[in-house]
Amino acid sequence: MNVEYIPAFYAAFAVETAVAEIRPGIGDQAAVGEFVLWKDLKVFDFTAFTRPGGDWKEVVSHTRYDFITQMQDEISKPVRPFEKQREYIATQIVAEYLREHFNCDAVIYRSSMIKGDKADDRNIVILDRGIKFVGNGTDQVLSLASHDVKDIVNIVYQIESGIPF
Is the pTM of this model over 0.85? Predict the structure, then answer.
């Protein structure tokens, strides 16, 4: 969501999603933190239409629904390391547009690394507004409430059945 060298704070709503996003290997360790929000944020949530429990009949007929769902699919598409520069341009433009024209402070989007109902698969990126993301006191957006170091002991890949060899 952010252009190189422009700061942004990336987080996830579940530990499993946060760890999956950094793509560690077996034997690696991942530091995971829980944060407290100190400022109200104006958030654009790309996942709002796809979360269970909503009655979206009227929303689906909205003229922007197709664009929002297509953009959500684009944001959540896995990007390989060698594709990063090219593949992130569209999402960077959309994030910048939301920040500049709608004064959004953050964007919620679905993870490209977690699929299904096993964990909350949402991520959030807090966009640069010229104030510290994390620190002590109340002059920043977040403060660290707790942290833990997780040992990566297993990685599970679910494979879709396809054409037999």
Answer: no
